Amino acid sequence: MLRVPEAEILRRLTFENPWWSDLGILDQLLEKMRQRSYLEPFFELMTNRGVRRAVVLMGPRRVGKTVMLRQCIRRLIHEKDVAPERILFVSLENPIYRGIYLSRILESFMEDRGYDRFADFYVVFDEIQYVEEWEAYLKVMVDDYPNIRFVVSGSAAAALRMKSRESGAGRFTDFLLPPLLFAEFLDFIGADANAEINLLNRHFIDYLNFGGFPEAILDPDIRADLPRFIASDILEKALQRDLPSLYGIDNPNELSRFFAALVYNTGQELSIGELSKETNIPKNTLYKFFTFLEAAFLIHRLYRVDEFGRRPKRDTGFKAYITNPCLRTAMYGPVGPDDEIMGAMAETALVAQVVHSSVIDKFFFAKWDKREVDLVAVHGSGDVFLAAEVKWSDRIERDHSGARHLISFAKKHSIARVMMTSRSLTGAFETSSVKVIYVPVAKHCLIAGTVYALSELAEGRHPRRLLPDGLDQE
């Protein structure tokens, strides 16, 4: 095969790293780009030289990973006094790099700059999933170049997650960047989080319809054609190209159709057995589908507990939620405040605020004797510490019967206060020594995102870990 000349590789690297000669071009690239709430903790992780590891930035497509990397590069130059020529950024999505080892790209740069193996600089590989066996090569490079800080990103979270688990032990630290939280959405559009509820609800409907993607918020053309943006640039690439074969999925079209059905039925209780009967898809294939879709951060499953907060031994029931509510709008049309689907969308939005938090593994739904509670949180010891019911309705003010299962569950666990959501009302009532507090869904999404996600970031803890405990430790 024809070999790409070193001069062409260096020419491309020069184009992708304009800050080597003109910092103003970097400012132009980032003009009008807002900062995600995750920028600060990610930058701290990226610049932490205490442990020799590569930082792996994961997340679904179009949530702002490349922008955040460039914002970090600008901060390295302006705040950490890193010389621009000591920051190498490589977008591996470009075909010029196909079939070229990561080490060759790095060595070409080092030879051109006269750096030896002990040189101190930053290397950022964007869209790492385009390199086969990237994880093995990256691990070797981390070992071979002790003073280089490697940072990689990728949209194929499924591939990244699985391969990080297999080959990155002790050399990779992961960081998950999710779709926008509702609190971030309000910040992006310059809205007041303390606005009166009717205005806040209008913002909430906008969030459900297009608020998960920074680009859609900032670009009216994308909002006007969101279905094509989602279908061609996100779903097609994620489900058709982002290496589903890693999970033994040999029919991406079937996977796409299955995901479309999940999007339509977000928040519904499912089971592998029933799904297999309804779809004629074998159970083992369904297991692969769910594993891939969760790893790609497109869905999340909440599993069932009984009235005692325990997982049934033989139960396979779960609820499947899309992690970005606006995916449903893109596939099935905009959601209006009076649409029947709003109940499920409100529940989906609330789960989306905490799905990337470190506490998500403690969340379940409870079901027993034809009774159900939408969200419960259970400590590892088995103690239930939170129970909530999600409604898009104001009926609770005149009819407390909608809280009866929630109250019954709370009494079993000696929970003094439980939460319900409404459409627009705030209030409380007490019955059977249980205080029921109800607030609008929009406000509860703000609270949940702040308590379970943004507070973790403010405390210097980065979000939900994807690597199993211990695998990212020395």
Description:
- This protein is α/β, with parallel strands linked by helices and 474 residues long.
- It has 2 domains: 6-176, P-loop containing nucleotide triphosphate hydrolases (Rossmann fold), CATH 3.40.50; 182-458, no CATH class.
- 43% of the residues lie in helices and 17% in strands.
- The protein contains 19 helices and 14 strands.
- The strands form 2 sheets. The protein has a 9-stranded mixed sheet with strand order 6-8-7-9-10-11-12-14-13, with helices on both faces. A 5-stranded parallel sheet has the order 2-3-4-1-5, sandwiched between helices.
- A hairpin with a 2-residue loop joins strand 13 (427-431) and strand 14 (434-440).
- Helix 3 (39-46) crosses helix 4, helix 7 packs across helix 15 (283-295) and helix 12 crosses helix 13 (252-264).
Brief summary of the model shown:
With 474 residues, the chain is an alpha/beta fold. It has helices at residues 6-16, 23-29, 39-46, 65-79, 102-113, 134-144, 157-167, 182-189, 197-210, 214-218, 220-224, 226-241, 252-264, 272-279, 283-295, 326-332, 342-354, 404-412, 441-458, and strands at residues 54-58, 87-91, 121-126, 148-154, 172-176, 269-270, 299-305, 318-322, 363-368, 371-378, 384-389, 417-422, 427-431, 434-440. The protein folds into 2 domains: 6-176, P-loop containing nucleotide triphosphate hydrolases (Rossmann fold, 3-Layer(aba) Sandwich), CATH 3.40.50; 182-458, no CATH class.
